[in-house]
Each structure stands twice: as structure tokens, then as C-alpha cells.
């Protein structure tokens, strides 16, 4: 039985990794949780007691609209917390139709990263922004350490960095309504599908060795920051990029 004051929480990418841990953390606090992602079977198997699920590609207008309509119907028109954990580096996305010119691969990499990291966040937010609880609503994006220092081709970090000015503009627009908007930028987080569940000992050691804490981040580390940002204690914190990286990147 949910408490009478349970909040309505939407978590994209809620079937795996950081999104799943975040959903479990909100559910443990007695909130009503809706998990979104593309794979229905992954969402349905997610170990989140009482959670609703809806499968949709949030990088498409059709998918984002369908997910928003489902959420508003299930939550009687009000969303208290919107967490955007959908994303990734794009390496496992379908490659059908990519041409032979090396520039085709570049275009595919950049557009894929923009779609799964940036568009997923922006489309669902725009579909729901008028329905976010005022005051008290929370919108939380997942950025990355890569947005602050790059990560290889530039595409993933750029797609995450694109969320930063959106965070700032949305915080300005929704601040007068009592809604806060922030992004959390993790460093390396283990036990998610992002890198897959296997990594060479050498690579793992390199990543852990770059932290000041001497360990990898966990989905629970990031979930704890997200649930705190959604708590009353964080009501004066908005328009920020909050780093959770064990000190791998100092300051901003
Ligand atoms: N793990 C890290 O080291 C790390 C570090 C910094 C930032 N991050 C960010 O943290 C977030 C969570 O990542 P994670 O590590 O938990 O990886 P993950 O386990 O791969 O989670 C990503 C989730 O996003 C969903 N997703 C991807 N594209 C989608 C789309 N178009 N529509 C709907 N859902 C979509 C995936 O489910 P479906 O494939 O079923 O749709 C998956 O559940 C991501 O934004 C990632 O970029 C991760």
C-alpha cells in the first residue's frame, strides 16, 4: 500500500543500470514509479516492486508522446519527479543503412548519440513540462564526465554536454513555478549495460586508478544523488551539473 502522499516518479532507462537502481531507491521511499525504455521484457523483469512500465523509443516524437500520454493517464495528470537515465555511447545501436563512406560512420555515430542521449531527454521533458508539479517538481538529467572532458570521438560527450544549456534554460523557465532542474554527471559506473558487464582487468584498473576514492562508482551511488536532488533538502539547488565521479574530475 502506497502512502497517501506518494509522489509520481518517471524514470527513463529504468530497466537497467543507474535507472534501475534509481527506481528501486524511489520505490523504497514509497513513491509511485513508472519505468520507461525500449525493451518491454527488460522493463517487466526489473526488480522494482509495484512499478508501472511502458516501452517506447523516447528518441522519437511518437514514442515520447505515447509515453507521456501513458504517464499522465496513470498519474492523474501530474508528474512530481522526472529522471532521464536513458542514454549510452551508441556502440550497440543498429547500423542498418549506414553507407561505406567513412563519413557515413561519423554521421551515424554523432546522430545516434544525439538521439539516444539528448533527444530522449528533451522530447519527453517538453511533452510533460506543463504537467510537472508546481511547486515541488523535479527534473533530473544524466550527463557524464565525458561532457566535461571528452571521451574519444567527441560524439558522446557532445550529446551529454548539449543537455547542460537545456538544464540551465529549463531551470530559468520553471524556477518561478517552484520546479528545480539539475543534471548529474557520473564518472565510471560499473554493473550497468553501458560498457557491458565485462571489462578487461587492465581497463578496470585504469578507470578505478583515476579516482581519488580508489573504487568504481555504483548505480546506487548515482541513485543516492538523484533521490537527494529530488528531496526537500535540495529545494534551493537548481540549474547545476552535479559530478559523481570519486574525484576523477575536480571542480566543474
Ligand atoms: N555507466 C557509466 O559509467 C555512465 C557514466 C556516465 C554517464 N552515464 C549515463 O547514465 C545513464 C544510464 O546509463 P547506465 O550506465 O545505467 O547504462 P544502461 O544500463 O545501458 O542504461 C541505459 C538505458 O537507456 C535505455 N535507452 C537507451 N536508448 C533509449 C531510447 N531511445 N528510448 C528509451 N530508452 C532508451 C536503455 O534501454 P533500452 O535499450 O531497452 O531502450 C537502458 O535501459 C545514461 O544516460 C549514460 O549515458 C553512464
Task: Give a description of the structure.
Strand 2 (32-37), helix 2 (40-45) and strand 3 form a beta-alpha-beta unit. With 252 residues, the protein is α/β, with parallel strands linked by helices. It is 40% helix and 14% strand. The longest helix has 27 residues, at 102-128. It has a seven-stranded parallel beta sheet, sandwiched between helices. It is globular, with a radius of gyration of 18 Å. It starts with 7 loop residues before the first strand and ends in an 8-residue tail after the last strand. The mean pLDDT is 96. It binds NADP nicotinamide-adenine-dinucleotide phosphate (NAP). Residues 12-13, 15-19, 37-39, 42, 57-59, 85-88, 116-117, 120, 142, 144, 186, 188-189, 192-194 line the site of NADP nicotinamide-adenine-dinucleotide phosphate (NAP).
Which range does the strand content fall in?
Answer: 5-15%
What is the rounded Rg? Answer: 18 Å
Question: What level of helicity do the residues show?
Answer: 40-55%
Q: Tell me about the biggest sheet?
A: 7 strands, parallel
Number of helices: 9
What number is the mean pLDDT?
Answer: 96
Q: Compute the number of strand runs.
A: 7
Give me the strand/helix succession. EHEHEHEHEHHHEHHE
* Termini gap: 42 Å
Q: In oligomeric terms, what are we looking at?
A: single chain
Q: Largest sheet, order of strands side by side?
A: 3-2-1-4-5-6-7
Q: Specify the structural class.
A: alpha/beta
Shape: globular
**Ions and ligands:** NADP nicotinamide-adenine-dinucleotide phosphate
Instruction: Enumerate the spans where pLDDT stays under 50 for 5 or more consecutive residues.
Output: none
Amino acid at each position: 500500500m502506497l502512502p497517501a502522499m506518494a509522489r509520481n516518479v518517471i524514470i527513463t532507462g529504468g530497466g537497467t543500470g543507474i535507472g534501475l537502481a534509481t527506481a528501486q531507491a524511489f520505490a523504497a521511499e514509497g513513491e509511485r514509479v513508472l519505468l520507461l525504455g525500449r525493451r518491454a521484457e527488460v522493463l517487466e523483469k526489473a526488480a522494482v516492486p509495484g512499478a508501472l512500465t511502458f516501452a517506447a523509443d523516447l528518441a522519437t516524437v511518437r514514442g515520447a508522446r505515447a509515453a507521456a500520454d501513458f504517464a499522465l493517464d496513470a498519474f492523474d495528470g501530474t508528474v512530481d519527479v522526472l529522471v532521464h537515465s536513458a542514454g549510452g555511447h551508441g556502440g550497440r545501436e543498429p547500423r542498418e543503412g549506414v553507407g561505406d563512406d567513412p563519413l557515413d560512420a561519423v554521421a551515424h555515430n554523432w546522430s545516434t548519440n544525439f538521439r539516444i542521449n539528448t533527444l530522449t531527454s528533451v522530447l519527453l521533458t517538453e511533452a510533460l513540462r506543463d504537467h510537472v508539479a508546481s511547486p515541488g517538481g523535479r527534473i533530473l538529467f544524466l550527463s557524464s564526465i565525458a561532457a566535461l572532458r571528452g571521451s574519444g570521438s567527441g560524439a558522446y560527450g557532445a550529446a551529454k554536454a548539449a543537455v547542460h544549456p537545456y538544464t540551465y534554460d529549463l531551470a530559468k523557465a520553471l524556477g518561478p513555478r517552484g520546479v528545480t532542474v539539475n543534471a548529474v554527471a557520473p564518472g565510471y559506473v560499473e554493473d550497468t549495460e553501458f560498457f557491458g558487464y565485462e571489462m578487461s582487468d587492465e581497463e578496470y584498473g585504469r578507470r578505478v586508478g583515476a579516482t581519488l576514492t580508489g573504487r568504481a562508482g555504483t548505480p546506487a551511488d548515482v541513485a543516492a544523488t538523484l533521490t537527494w536532488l529530488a528531496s526537500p533538502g535540495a529545494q534551493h539547488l537548481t540549474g547545476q551539473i552535479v559530478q559523481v565521479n570519486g574525484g576523477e574530475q575536480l571542480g566543474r
